[in-house]
Design brief:
The chain is α/β, with parallel strands linked by helices. The protein folds into three domains: 4-101 and 198-259, Adenylosuccinate Synthetase, subunit A, domain 1 (Adenylosuccinate Synthetase, Chain A, domain 1, 3-Layer(aba) Sandwich); 108-195, Orthogonal Bundle (Adenylosuccinate Synthetase, subunit A, domain 2); 264-427, Alpha-Beta Complex (Adenylosuccinate Synthetase, Chain A, domain 3), CATH 3.90.170. The protein has twelve helices and 18 strands. The protein has helices at 16-24, 75-87, 108-120, 132-140, 157-173, 181-195, 202-211, 245-248, 283-291, 310-320, 359-364, 390-403; strands at 4-8, 29-32, 41-45, 48-52, 64-67, 97-100, 199-200, 216-223, 259-265, 268-270, 304-306, 308-309, 324-328, 338-347, 350-352, 366-373, 407-411, 419-421. Strands 7-6-5-2-8-1-9-13-17-18 form a ten-stranded mixed beta sheet, with helices on both faces. Strands 12, 14, 15 and 16 form a four-stranded mixed beta sheet that branches. Strand 14 and strand 15 (350-352) form a beta hairpin. Helix 2 (75-87) crosses helix 6 (181-195). It starts with a strand and ends in a 7-residue tail after the last strand. 47% of the residues are buried. It binds 6-O-phosphoryl inosine monophosphate and magnesium ion. 6-O-phosphoryl inosine monophosphate (IMO) binds at residues 8, 11-13, 38-40, 125-128, 130, 132-133, 221-223, 226, 237-238, 271-272, 297.
């Protein structure tokens, strides 16, 4: 398959950055197709660490990078992230970065609204407060200002009327003044030259790349359990994170998605609120969090930690059509005497082999655990199966069996070479 789509198979933070970077080195194009600057992808290249939120990971190596129409783009954040990377020696130009002309913008009042909602209500999603949800609402509500509008600022008034009619009413409910239209237009005029040079019909160039046999890598953000349809609704993000979105979020047909590589952490973490059946709010959770450096790249929040949940990953694999998984952070489990895997749930006396859809049921399910023996040796840095202790291999094999999906590679440290490759997704 010429193309690969990488997605998170849990609640995000599975270690996508490293895997994407590893694949990006051999890809001709890297594409972001959903989400916005709520993502946090850490790349370690040599002795440099790059933290990306919005830009596709390929940019660090100068690979052609594309922000697809399925992304919501905060133009001010974009400008700052480009400048930050430039400060680290990464050259970003309209030759190596393209933004879809039909990509909707995140505007300052989207960020305000995201924060106001989080602060005001008892019901907290625990968002990244970056305006992601409100920007997607405006897209679906047919009110969004898009990248192409930046080239038509003089025609924007009717659209701003509709945006203000909607947002001013919401803002009044939070005792906020109406949107300052003059300022908004000035701000857009000021930022437009930072965005427009990158604006392209990316569906067109991606189609050409595909016909020319180029390798396209689709880089998912967040994880399948944060998908607005299939995730732990309403505690989700506002986009579809499943692999199929690579097609609609970039303008390449469904056949272009290629090999679907699901990134799976050897245990489970979650940031923000919402159900988490295998959460360990105890010394096990502390151990995993400390060992695994489980703090958010975007918000710095401490991640909730727990045992591997095979039920959830099996569901992710099925819903997203995962071809194979990349298992990450296995080394964090080194030294544990006993490791638990969730293999099913019970709720009110009934057995479940999937996560029921209702949030209250999701919060009440009792995990059924299977125990496996741990290993005392270190797996960190292993580059072949022979370097893994027998118990670690057993753990991996058991996971494969339970999630009904094969392991494509195992990652044993943040360093790109510390990888055990079973199949090459690009060559598959
Ligand atoms: P990466 O790409 C983990 C979570 C937030 C919150 C919910 C909604 O690093 O895996 P949003 O701001 O998107 O409206 O917040 O989604 N969330 C993430 N959690 N990793 C991410 O990205 C996330 N992006 C959003 O914590 O629960
Ligand atoms: Mg993250």
């Amino acid at each position: 398959m010429a193309n690969v789509t990488v997605i998170g198979a849990q609640w995000g933070d599975e270690g996508k950055g490293k895997i994407v970077d590893w694949l990006a080195e051999r890809a001709d194009v890297v594409v972001r197709f959903q989400g916005g600057h709520n993502a946090g992808h850490t790349l370690v290249v040599g002795n440099q660490t790059y933290k990306l939120s919005l830009l596709p990971s390929g940019i660090v190596r100068g690979t052609l990078s594309v922000i697809g129409n399925g992304v919501v783009l905060d133009p001010w954040h974009f400008r700052d992230e480009v400048a930050k990377l430039a400060g680290q020696g990464v050259t970003i130009t309209p030759d190596n970065l393209h933004i879809a002309e039909n990509c909707p913008l995140i505007l300052p009042f989207h960020r305000d609204l995201d924060g106001l909602r989080e602060d005001a209500s008892e019901f907290k999603i625990g968002t990244t407060r970056r305006g992601i949800g409100p920007a997607y609402e405006d897209k679906v509500g047919r009110r969004a200002i898009r990248v192409c509008d930046l080239a038509h600022l003089d025609d924007l008034d009717p659209q701003i009327d509709r945006l203000c009619a909607h947002h001013d009413a919401l803002r009044a409910g939070f005792d906020q003044p109406p949107i300052d239209r003059v300022r908004l237009k000035n701000d857009l005029a000021e930022i437009a030259p930072h965005i427009l040079p990158y604006a392209k019909p990316v569906w067109h160039s991606l189609g050409e790349a595909r016909r020319a046999g180029k390798r396209i890598l689709f880089e998912g953000a967040q994880g399948m359990l944060l998908d607005v349809d299939h995730g732990t609704y309403p505690f989700v993000t506002s986009s579809n994170t499943v692999a199929g979105t690579a097609s609609s979020g970039s303008g390449l047909g469904p056949g272009g998605v290629g090999f679907v590589l699901g990134i799976v952490k050897a245990y489970t973490t979650r940031v923000g609120s919402g159900p988490f059946p295998t959460e360990q709010d105890n010394e096990i959770g502390e151990f995993l969090g400390t060992r695994g450096h489980e703090f958010g790249v975007v918000t710095g929040r401490k991640r909730r930690c727990g045992w591997f949940d095979a039920v959830l990953v099996r569901q992710s694999a099925a819903v997203s059509g995962i071809t194979g998984i990349a298992l990450t952070k296995l080394d964090i489990l080194d030294g544990l005497e006993e490791i638990k895997i969730c293999v099913g749930y019970t709720l009110d006396g009934r057995h479940y082999d999937y996560l029921p859809p209702h949030a209250a049921d999701q919060a009440r399910v009792e995990p059924i655990y299977e125990s496996v023996e741990g290993w005392s040796e270190t797996t960190a840095g292993a580059r072949s199966w022979a370097q893994l202790p027998a118990q670690a291999i057993k753990y991996i094999r058991r996971i494969e069996e339970l999630i009904q999906c094969p392991v494509t590679l195992v990652s044993t440290s943040p360093q790109r070479d510390d990888t055990i490759l079973v199949r090459d997704p690009f060559e598959d």
